[in-house]
Amino acid sequence: MTDLPRSEGLTIVRLANFVTPVSGGLRTALRHLGAGYRAAGHRPVLIVPGERRSVADTGQGLVVTLPGPVLPASGGYRLLADRRAVEAELTRLSPDRLEVSDRTTLRWTGGWARRHGVRSVMVSHESATGLLRTRGLPGPLASAAADRLNAATARAYDSVLCTTDWAAAEFRRIGVPNLVRAPLGVDLTAMRPLPPTVRAEERARYAAPKDVLLVLCSRLSAEKRPERAVEALARLRALGLPAVLVVAGTGPLRERLTARAARLRLPVRFLGHLGRREALARLLGCADVVLAPGPVETFGLAAMEALACGTPVAVSRSSALPGLIGLAGVASVDTGSGFALAVRELLGRPEEVRRAAARAQAERYGWPAAVAAFLAAHGVRNSGAMDGGWDEPAERRA
């Protein structure tokens, strides 16, 4: 398959499960990639599951929603389970490229692409090994099961794309030959440090001047390990540090976490999903430390957005984040006490120094470079995505 000139453009159809109006990192990444593809002269289409069929022309391109059942105990995630409906949509759209963000229930689409002469890419947004371990499967069994899954995935698609070396490791382990790397990005315009006066005003909404303000921005589900933020808060207060915790996000564990915080009489405020990016940026920007306890994060967009807002992060040492945050954060052992120690270490650095380091690290991960790398994985050499960015999608500006 040969590259097309940029002026002709490509129809790039993207398929994704586990996307809802209140989901976080994947939804944000899909939006920015689509906007970048469109700005580079291509025709991006995103197909996702929902309650009913709809078609909308947005800043990230065409978004097609197909009816899909809710995955039990997932907190509202739906699946593109109707294979005939998906096939019909693909046939109607006649893509030049296919990009799939689910290696399990949508793996059959790799075969569809091959039969129709369409170049295909599967994007690995998670570690299969790590997810299986979080579900209680012992290490050796998790690795063996992940190896079988990943080998089948690699055979199904022309390329397997991983966003970090950490995510790519499980594919390298089995010698996958069609592995490519492309980073995700951070919105460095919407996510930026707050002026000191604005930061103080925003901070006062959540904490007293003497308090240490911790923020967790995460889906509240088992693989994210949100309970470790509550455990870290309890440990810090037991050590005499007047810390408070604000939680942005929702998910199946919210009621359990709320009950636990109340039982321990901990100052935890649950905000639910923050739909407006400006509100999220202000929250991240006014925090003293943002916690990212998820042990299987392959990029950790919320943590990177915190850095862009000038806030240091304490991250799980088991995730990909230690390789991304540089000196702008601290990698913690996967316990509440470990995260408490990481917070204390970060607070020991002068505030101006830690905030400047956070922003400087985030500036290494702009979206134009990410879009160019993703398009390169699609065989597009001259995407134009490095030429200075693009307008924010309408739903991002709202």
SSE layout and pairing:
Elements lengths: L10 E6 L8 H15 L3 E8 L3 E5 L2 E7 L15 H11 L3 E5 L6 H8 L3 E6 L3 H7 L4 H18 L2 E4 L2 H8 L6 E3 L14 H8 L8 E6 L9 H12 L4 E6 L5 H10 L4 E5 L4 H10 L2 E4 L8 H8 L4 E4 L5 H4 L3 E4 L3 H12 L3 H12 L4 H11 L16 H4 L1
Parallel strand pairs: 1-2, 1-5, 2-4, 5-6, 6-7, 7-8, 9-10, 9-12, 10-11, 12-13, 13-14
Antiparallel strand pairs: 3-4
Question: What this model shows, in words?
Answer:
It is a single chain. Helix 4 packs antiparallel against helix 5 and helix 8 packs across helix 13. Helix content is 40%, strand content 18%. The chain has 398 residues and is α/β, with parallel strands linked by helices. The protein has two domains: 207 residues, 3-Layer(aba) Sandwich (Rossmann fold); 167 residues, Glycogen Phosphorylase B (Rossmann fold). An eight-stranded mixed sheet has the order 3-4-2-1-5-6-7-8, with helices on both faces. The protein is globular, with a radius of gyration of 21 Å. The longest helix is centred in the middle third of the chain and has 18 residues. It has 16 helices and 14 strands.
Largest sheet: 8 strands, mixed
CATH architecture of the largest domain: 3-Layer(aba) Sandwich
Radius of gyration: 21 Å
Structural class: alpha/beta
